[in-house]
């Protein structure tokens, strides 16, 4: 929208509050602030939702893979053949034997639910989700037959265990006796305490070498499942389709969508609802721009009539008021984008401040899954938000600008 010199001069004057126009300036200021808050809220919320989904996906698939082949009755005796067939399937990057069993962990009379996870020592040390997540001790200290384990930080806090503590793993499926089945209780020394950042994992996981897990669960040489990693998580079903008939007699394939379908569907719905609700803020701000421009047109009716008699065209007047409204929206958008990125950068301090003011734990890991508030701004999404806000601001200027251009100078100046 190109403006002539006089149009730019008039638009600049109308952007600044004149004598007796304080109320119009206040309304325009509210419009600017509303646009700013709407854009900032959308950027912050959508970035947090993106970060939450990405972080949760990385953590879940990092420990559970893109899919698992679950053995029938929790056992897979021919797991080596299954691993061989999986690795030979195009699109599969790794196939890892795994044992996972819910049991109980006890220390000093405290008993908590525990999810026993048996992995090869090589997989424990190379797993990207576990690597470098030790807060005490080292995964490297665990060796097959050493009777040493690694436990999650929140499980350690719940039972009061520390490095070197001797915890008991309770397996209800023990030896049969004339008096019934006796619990199998095996003691292990804590070699490492880790924190992966997912509350449920840190609260329950007990990781041990696979050979020790086989001994604990009386599995012999069997494993419970084979974890699968693929080249593309979004195409996991297509990649695994050729493998399904080959392992049908050994186990059932379950991909990450099936394992966490409700969680990721809820996140998708929440993301859409949040976007729609927060977009209403920008729409309301656009109505504020309409109101402030209509009041400006009413207060400048005489000026508009004089300009028309001096040769100003209807198109020129429309451009003037469209520029005024669009400038308000543009400044609000720029300020909102800046505010949004500032909030994202200091988001942990913002959460702590809100918690300090309200006296509540705003980000409770037991409810939010993750221990920290994540954020992952998407460039195209941010551009989309800015374009949407600019479009709403521009559309809000059309009616007031048309009203100004439709002013009849004869009718206005007749009574002056």
Query: What is the helix tally?
Result: 16
Helix content: 40-55%
Gyration radius, in Å: 32 Å
Q: List SSEs in N-to-C order.
A: HHEHEEHEEHEEEEHEHEHEHHHHHHHH
Strand content: 15-25%
Total beta strand runs: 12
Shape: elongated
The stretches of 5 or more residues where confidence is low (pLDDT under 50) are: none
Average pLDDT taken over every residue: 83
Tell me about the largest β-sheet: 6 strands, mixed, barrel
* Strand arrangement in the largest pleated sheet: 2-3-10-5-9-6
Structural classification: alpha+beta
- Total number of domains: 2
Distance between the termini: 33 Å
Write structural notes for this entry.
It contains 16 helices and twelve strands. β7 and β8 (180-181) form a beta hairpin. With 416 residues, it is an alpha+beta fold. Helix content is 54%, strand content 19%. The strands form two sheets. Strands 2-3-10-5-9-6 form a six-stranded mixed barrel.
Summarize the structure.
The protein is built from 16 helices and twelve strands. With 416 residues, it is α+β, with helices and mostly antiparallel strands.
Features:
416 residues, alpha+beta, 2 domains, two-stranded antiparallel sheet
Set down the secondary structure blueprint.
Blueprint: H1 5-15, H2 22-64, E1 67-71, H3 79-87, E2 92-107, E3 110-119, H4 121-126, E4 134-137, E5 148-152, H5 153-159, E6 166-171, E7 176-177, E8 180-181, E9 184-194, H6 199-204, E10 205-209, H7 210-216, E11 225-230, H8 236-240, E12 251-255, H9 256-259, H10 261-299, H11 301-309, H12 314-345, H13 347-358, H14 365-368, H15 379-405, H16 409-413
């Amino acid at each position: 929208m190109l403006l002539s010199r006089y149009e730019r001069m008039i638009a600049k004057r109308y952007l600044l509050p004149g004598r007796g126009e304080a109320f119009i300036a206040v309304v325009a200021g509210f419009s600017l602030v509303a646009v700013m808050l709407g854009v900032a809220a959308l950027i912050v919320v959508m970035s947090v939702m993106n970060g939450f989904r990405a972080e949760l996906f990385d953590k879940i698939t990092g420990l559970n893979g893109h899919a698992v082949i679950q053995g029938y009755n929790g056992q897979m005796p021919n797991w080596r053949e299954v691993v061989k067939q999986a690795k030979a399937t195009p699109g599969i990057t790794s196939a890892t034997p795994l044992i996972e069993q819910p049991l109980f962990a006890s220390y000093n009379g405290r008993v908590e639910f525990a999810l026993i996870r048996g992995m090869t020592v090589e997989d424990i040390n190379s797993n990207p989700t576990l690597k470098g997540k030790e807060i005490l001790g080292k995964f490297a200290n665990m060796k097959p037959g050493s009777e040493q384990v690694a436990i999650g930080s929140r499980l350690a806090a719940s039972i009061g265990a520390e490095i070197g503590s001797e915890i008991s793993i309770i397996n209800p499926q023990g030896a049969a006796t004339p008096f019934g089945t006796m619990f199998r209780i095996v003691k292990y020394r804590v070699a490492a305490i880790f924190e992966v950042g997912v509350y449920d994992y840190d609260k329950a996981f007990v990781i041990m070498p696979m050979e020790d897990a086989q001994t604990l669960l009386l599995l012999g040489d069997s494993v419970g499942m084979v974890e699968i990693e693929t080249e593309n998580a979004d195409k996991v079903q297509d990649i695994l389709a050729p493998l399904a008939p080959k392992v049908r007699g050994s186990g059932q394939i379950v991909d990450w969508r099936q394992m966490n379908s409700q969680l990721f569907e809820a996140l998708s719905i929440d993301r859409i609802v949040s976007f729609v609700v927060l977009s209403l803020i920008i729409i309301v701000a656009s109505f504020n721009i309409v109101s402030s421009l209509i009041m400006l047109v009413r207060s400048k009716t005489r000026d508009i009539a004089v300009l028309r008699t001096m040769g100003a065209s209807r198109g020129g007047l429309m451009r003037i008021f469209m520029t005024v409204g669009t400038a308000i929206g543009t400044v609000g958008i720029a300020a909102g984008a800046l505010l949004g990125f500032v909030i994202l950068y200091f988001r942990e301090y913002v959460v702590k401040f809100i918690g300090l003011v309200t006296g509540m734990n705003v980000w409770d890991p037991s409810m939010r899954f993750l221990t920290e508030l994540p954020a992952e701004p998407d460039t195209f999404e941010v551009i989309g938000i800015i374009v949407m806000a600019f479009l709403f601001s521009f559309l809000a200027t059309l009616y007031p600008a048309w009203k100004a251009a439709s002013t009849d100078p004869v009718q206005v100046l007749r009574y002056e």
